[in-house]
Amino acid sequence: MYHQIVPEPQGVYDRNPDDFRAELERLAREDYVPVTAAEYSTGVMDLPAGTHPVVLTFDDSTDSQLRVGVDGEPADDCAVGILRDVAARHEGFRPVATFFVNGDPFPATGGRKALAWLHENGFEIGNHTLNHAKLSALPAAGVQREIAANQKAIADDAPGARVLSMGLPFGIQPDPARLALAGSHAGVSYRHRGAYLVGANPAPSPYAASFDPVGIPRIRSAGPDAEDAELGSSRWLDKLADGTVRRYTSDGDPERISFPEGGRGEVAGEHRERPGRTRACVGGGLSPAPPLPETGAEAPDPFSRGLRPRTPAPQAPARLEGAAPAPQAPARLEGAAPAPQAPPATSPRLRPGVPPRRYPQAGLI
Ligand SMILES: [Zn+2]
């Protein structure tokens, strides 16, 4: 979770451009691949074996995140410019992120130009309410007005963009919390696949029983010595890297959910009993981690769902747009052909009859 990327950070939610770049470099080095919040919450993550999905989110639609010049390109020193530069230097590191925007977003560029640019370049636009509202202080009608009015503004600026994710201002849920996911006002309806909190730990797999779309945790970007560093990204990445905390790792097969022996109880009920779709690993537990560079020595990961060699970043949004929101993630699994696929060359442990693994912890920042 990022807010401002500025040379002089004003608080724990800001990072300077060098630290931001260093964190992205670390993610790339440690085989993380960015996915959007919508890709995460719908379970449509299609990544090479051995990589780990990470959702990069930006709140408040500030100029330090995106400034688009007269040439139509983002400034080199804004967050999008830095992310695109890092992605260009690291093959497979997708230049995608989710921007939770308010009314009048990215004022230096202008909402119409900025949101259109984001949408056209594969970034996700999420809802952060029209006025950065404290939703718990509003009646149900007010909550829906704040969200629906902002969705309309987004749709006006970026025609065709589907708003599937909601960043809760201050991390505060409305009452009832489900109003963050669905509602309507003045003829505008919204339906989100996930509402995101502010703190403070990795999010579970979207197929885990513990996944709750009403309140998905995020991790604040923070250095190892920052205030409350234990809740920040550097410390969490350390724990995810050394195996202290399990992380979601792709096995390269997008067609099925699988899990290690004994892990069935961690799979959400609707995905638990799917003959031919969701199966326990055989042969005494997890297969070894795929022998990819820099990943072979990692601790076993408990769950994974399949992934396939990555398509270039700009193609992912198109795929997402083509998917119906709610029923599709499960349906995609149910409709998948389990066994006959040839295993990807990068994932020798995938073979007919041996289900891929699935990991419940996704490192969310
Ligand atoms: Zn905010």
Automatic annotation (TrEMBL):
Residues 247-276 have a biased composition (Basic and acidic residues). Residues 52-178 form the NodB homology domain. Residues 247-365 are annotated as: Disordered. This is Polysaccharide deacetylase family protein. InterPro entries: Glyco_hydro/deAcase_b/a-brl, NODB_dom, Polysacch_Deacetylase. Pfam families: Polysacc_deac_1. Gene3D superfamilies: Glycoside hydrolase/deacetylase. Keywords: Signal. Its main location: secreted. It is found in: Secreted.
